[in-house]
Every structure is written in C-alpha cells, then in structure tokens.
Amino acid sequence: xxxxxxxxxxxxxxxxxxxxxxxxxxxxxxxRRRQRKAEFEVINIPVVVHVIHNQPQNIIGGSGNPNIxxxxxxxxxxxxxxxxxxxxxxxxxxxxxxxxxxxxxxxLADFDPNGAATNGITRTYYEAKSTFNPYTDAPLLANxxxxxxxxxxxxxxxxxxxxxxxxxxxxxxxxxPGLDNNQANQALTDGVIIDYRSFGDRxxxxxxxxxxxxxxxxxxxxxxxxLHIWGDAxxxxxxxxxxxxxxxSNTTSCNERFSxxxxxxxxxxxxxxxxxxxxxxxxxxxxxxxxxxxAVLELSPRRASLVANARKLRLEESExxxxxxxxxxxxxxxxxVEVRHQGFKxxxxxxxxxQGKIYSVEKFTKIWSREIVTQVGNLTRGVYLVIxxxxxxxxQSSKFVVN
Length: 403
Known about the structure:
The protein is α/β, with parallel strands linked by helices. The protein has helices spanning about 15-35, 70-85, 140-145, 185-190, 215-225, 285-300, 300-310, and strands at about 1-5, 45-55, 105-110, 120-125, 155-160, 165-170, 190-195, 260, 265, 320-325, 335-340, 345-355, 360-365, 370-375, 380-390, 395-400. The longest helix has 18 residues, at about 15-35.
C-alpha cells in the first residue's frame, strides 16, 4: 500500500537512526516547553509537482492518463491545506479535543530554481517505463527530474506498480547514521512519490477508498517526521502521547476499532491521517503530531533550509490588498510591483494609461504576498497605472512614470 524509507538502515550500538531522531525531537520539544516559547508560527511550504507520463502527444488529463490535469494537481494542494490547517467547513475540519491546526500550509512554487516564474508543475514524457516501483525507481524518478530538495518539496506523480499508493522519504538529521544530511543519494530523492490515481480528488482519480487526496496528506506527514499511529509494530510507539495505542493499522473500513495495549483497552484513532484508513474516515492531526512536525522543520537541515529559502521570496501579508511600485520613475524596462494580501489568492496585474487603454495583463494563480517583476519596455514617455485585482474582489492601483 504505502510506506516511507529511511535510506540506509544503519544501527549504532543497537540504537536505530529512528531512535536517535526521536531523542532529538523529544529533547527539542522539552526545551521548547521549558522555555515557554510562543505559539508555533505558520510555515508555508513551496511544492513542485513533477508529472512523469508516457503520453507521446503530451495529452493532458482524462481517465487512465498519468499526465494529469492542472485542476487535479490544484485540488491536491487545496486538500493539503484543508487537512493541515483544519480548515472550518472542509472535510479536514474536526472538533476532536486532540485535533490541531498544524500551522503548516502548502503552495505550488511560483519561482523555479533559476528565479523564473513558474506554476510549480513540470511535465516529463518518459517512454522507457510505463509504471514505477516507488522504492527501486526512486533514484530514476529523481534523475528524470528533481528541483533542489532543500528549497522545494518535490512530489513525483506517476503510475506506480503493484498496489502502492505512495511513499515518502523520512527527514534527514546531520550526525544520525542512516539519516545523515550529507548523503547525496538521500538529498536527490528527498520528497514524496504518489500514484496519479490517488492524487487529489478529481480528474484521473479512481481508487474507491483513497480518492480524496489523503494519500499525499499521509505521505507528507512521513516527510515531516510522523510515524504510523501503531508505530509499525503491535502496540508500537509513534512518539506522540495524544494518539492512542493501537495494535495494528486500520484499512478499508471506517468502523470503530479497539486495541488492548499495555493492559488497557482503548479506541483506535482511525480518523488520524497517519493510519491506513480510507480517505473518507480521515480528518485529524493531533497537537503532539503538530509539535513533532515543527520540530523536524527546525532540526532537519534540508527542511530548515527549505523554510528559510521560502521566506526569502515572501512578503508579509496584509489584511487588505496593498500595492507598491518601484522604481518610480522607471529605470530600464522592468517595473517591480509589491502585492500584499491575506493568504493565497488569484491575482491579476494590468498596465494601463490614464485614459484607460490596457497595455498588458498578467494573471497569477494562488500566490502569496510577493514582489512581481513586469516588463514595461514597450511603453512611451508618460504616466501609467498598475491596476491589481484579486479573487476577493479587492482592487488597488498605483501610478508610475516613464521618462
């Protein structure tokens, strides 16, 4: 069905890499609680989706086509944010006393590794294989295409062999054998691999039990350091105190299950995203799971680097749309437009003269507050307007001068 990989499974004095990672995470959380630090801030993760397909005509979308549509991809990003932010009114919302907003959100990258604008989606035709084994073919997929894994969450979407839904690479931690950040092969493959038939909730999705985008929610949980709630052993430890002990995984049903672990009978948390429950059952990350994910985002060098790089390209959001242009007057052929708003929004930027004639229109889908560079080299001397509107109906304009 699915799993996660650790890379090299080295043991040191019978202590596994996972044990060492958990010790570091637990110590980090103890120190944080002792210092009474403020609430966790919201962290925004840039995502690149690599679509690997066997369509020689590059046909996009349709049943049985691994070259999935942009609509299907964007549905998965929406679901991730519903689930990780416990968004009210969405399937990701819950009123469970342990249920938490993880304060982690995801967006399709808007800059590629060279700084050029992108929609965060790559498409690669690969004719040598029609299906991929997510374990043995992970290096192959990464060599077909990969963006720096210390700057982006790479998700490879393709046709997987067997009954695999997806896999994820566990976070690396420097100095922990088997999870060491210096291992180049781990850096290249660091990310998530998902079968195209279980990615998002529309388009080519066709798995009856795993058709609401929760495979990616689950796998990214592993990428952020979470274990299965049964700890991959009978009554195993997932290192989160607020997830009940479980004898085994839950599959195919949303019926209640009970476990007898350590002499106590308790109800399994089958709603937890880190179980194997059908997608329709799932809607819970717990507070301790949230803490663990944030600890990993600080302790794992590649995860920490990714967060830091994402912040470089972001502007602080504002409650209402704000627009600033510079340089003014124009120097050269580029105008920089700072757009600030709340959350992720569709944005349109138009360049017009004072009489209302439109010279250019650019549209951006679901972008965070950011600086946008637009070309104005075709404009003659005069005064012009930058007109910015967003999906909330907000509209702001700013004048600039071309000498």
